[in-house]
């Protein structure tokens, strides 16, 4: 499967085209809209969330709620477009008095993108590099999620830290705590930590600053055998890490023990393989995070993401006006104080899309029942081998 998305933050809409979906997969806009709503929630979000109410529309590839094998086109309209029609007009000429963005914001793509594409008005960069793009990524990822959830996959996420405040929740407990996480304004199941996180966000907002944090992602029901060791670009841990690092603001991805594994001895890092009379071949620990040699091993996937503070500051850092070459504060665009809870939802979607791709590569077919037959045969075969 492959996907292409388009659209600017304040343009008319966001668009996604998915090619390679099997025919017969049942899709419902309500399921995608539910994930879009989750993305828009979270304490610390800015004014844009009060404007948008994201809803997906299917434009092709779906008939009577079932995919038909042709490209699936999705659209999410930007409600804020009504306020930006002159500034972001696809045709015509710039309106009189339109002010160009010439002061790049430190930490954003503004300067690097402006140099790469030779833009004098940095709005050409910031409109596409904006995290608004993740709305479509959630919609696309949810299509992949619906596909793999049909085969037993389940996705869980929570916020493990905001700034210096950390949760004590064990990621292995997330399936049991999922309801509590969904009720939390910070997607945090640790009520003690949540209170301190809320205070930290309030303090940062009052001081014109922003906060990042740590996200933990747990995916259960993943069969062994997705990905491959035979080529570097088929290693699923690399693909997952790349997809998750591409989310705006994510600066680090760990799978399993992650960086901690570099500090311990091998006997403390690797998971023993054991034979159990009732359960067959099994592992007492999951420090590998469900991945060995770039291949899923049947254990839950355990992933941690580090998100930096949002670079758009009410009290901007110093920058340079590219036209005058004089020092000036970085430009200010409407922004959030903290978007870590929202990024957790985006991470679920991004990982779901990569897993759906690996799943269809392994159990490929042109219609959903063909994939089901291949999956059932494979699972019956490996179950016999592991018992």
Q: Please, could you describe this protein's structure?
A:
The structure is a single chain. The protein is an alpha+beta fold and 387 residues long. The chain has one domain: Chorismate synthase, AroC fold (4-Layer Sandwich), CATH 3.60.150.10. It contains 11 helices and 17 strands. It has helices spanning 29-40, 48-51, 110-117, 123-129, 134-149, 174-183, 191-206, 236-245, 266-269, 340-362, 368-386; strands at residues 2-6, 13-19, 56-60, 62-63, 66-67, 72-77, 154-162, 165-166, 213-220, 250-255, 274-276, 280-282, 291-292, 295-296, 301-307, 318-320, 327-329. Strands 8-7-9-15-10 form a 5-stranded antiparallel beta sheet. A 4-stranded antiparallel beta sheet has the order 1-2-6-3. Helix 1 (29-40) crosses helix 5, helix 5 (134-149) packs across helix 10 (340-362) and helix 8 runs antiparallel to helix 10 (340-362). It is globular. The mean pLDDT is 94.
Descriptive labels:
387 residues, globular, five-stranded antiparallel sheet, alpha+beta, 33% helix, Chorismate synthase, AroC fold, 19% strand, single chain
Radius of gyration: 22 Å
CATH class categorisation: Alpha Beta
Query: Looking at the chains present, what oligomeric state does this protein adopt?
Result: single chain
User: Which structural class is indicated by helix and strand composition?
Assistant: alpha+beta
Strand order of the largest sheet: 8-7-9-15-10
**Secondary-structure arrangement, i.e. CATH architecture:** 4-Layer Sandwich
Low-pLDDT residue intervals, each spanning 5 or more residues: none
Count of DSSP E strands? 17
Distance between the termini: 33 Å
What letter string, H or E per element, gives the SSE order? EEHHEEEEHHHEEHHEHEHEEEEEEEHH
| Tally of separate helices | 11
Note the beta-strand portion: 15-25%
CATH superfamily: Chorismate synthase AroC
Helix content: 25-40%
What characteristic shape results from the CA principal axes?
A: globular
Report on the biggest sheet. 5 strands, antiparallel
What's the mean pLDDT score?
A: 94
According to CATH, the fold-level topology is Chorismate synthase, AroC fold
């Amino acid at each position: 499967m492959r996907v292409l998305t388009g659209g600017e933050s304040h343009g008319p809409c966001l668009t996604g085209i998915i090619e390679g979906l099997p025919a017969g997969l049942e899709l419902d806009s309500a399921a995608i809209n539910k994930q879009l709503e989750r993305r828009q929630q979270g304490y610390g979000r800015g004014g844009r969330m009060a404007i948008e109410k994201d809803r997906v529309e299917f434009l092709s590839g779906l008939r009577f709620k079932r995919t038909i094998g042709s490209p699936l086109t999705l659209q999410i309209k930007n409600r804020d477009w009504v306020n930006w029609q002159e500034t972001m007009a696809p045709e015509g000429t710039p309106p009189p008095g339109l002010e160009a963005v010439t002061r790049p914001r430190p930490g954003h793509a503004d300067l690097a993108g402006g140099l790469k594409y030779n833009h004098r008005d940095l709005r050409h960069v910031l409109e596409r590099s904006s995290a608004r793009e993740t709305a479509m990524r959630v919609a696309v990822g949810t299509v992949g999620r619906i596909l793999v959830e049909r085969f037993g996959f389940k996705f869980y996420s929570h916020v493990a830290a905001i700034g210096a405040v950390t949760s004590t929740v064990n990621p292995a407990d997330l399936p049991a705590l999922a309801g509590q996480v969904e009720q939390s304004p910070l997607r945090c199941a640790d009520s003690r930590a949540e209170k301190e996180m809320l205070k930290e966000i309030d303090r940062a907002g009052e001081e014109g600053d922003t906060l990042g944090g740590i996200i933990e992602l747990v995916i259960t029901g993943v069969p062994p055998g997705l990905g491959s060791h035979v080529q570097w670009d088929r290693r699923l841990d690399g693909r997952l890490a790349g997809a998750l690092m591409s989310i705006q603001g994510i600066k680090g991805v760990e799978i399993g023990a992650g960086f901690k594994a570099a500090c311990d001895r091998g006997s403390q890092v690797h998971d023993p393989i054991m034979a159990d009379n009732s359960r067959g071949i099994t592992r007492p620990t999951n420090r590998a995070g469900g991945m060995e040699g770039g291949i899923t091993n049947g254990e839950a996937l355990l992933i941690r993401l580090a998100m930096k503070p949002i670079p758009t500051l009410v009290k901007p850092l110093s920058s340079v006006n590219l036209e005058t070459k004089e020092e000036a504060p970085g430009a200010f665009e409407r922004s959030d104080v903290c978007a870590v809870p929202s990024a957790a939802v985006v991470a679920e979607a991004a990982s779901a899309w990569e897993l759906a791709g690996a799943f269809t590569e392994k159990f490929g077919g042109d219609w959903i029942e063909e994939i089901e037959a291949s999956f059932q045969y494979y699972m019956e075969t490996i179950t016999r081998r592991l018992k």
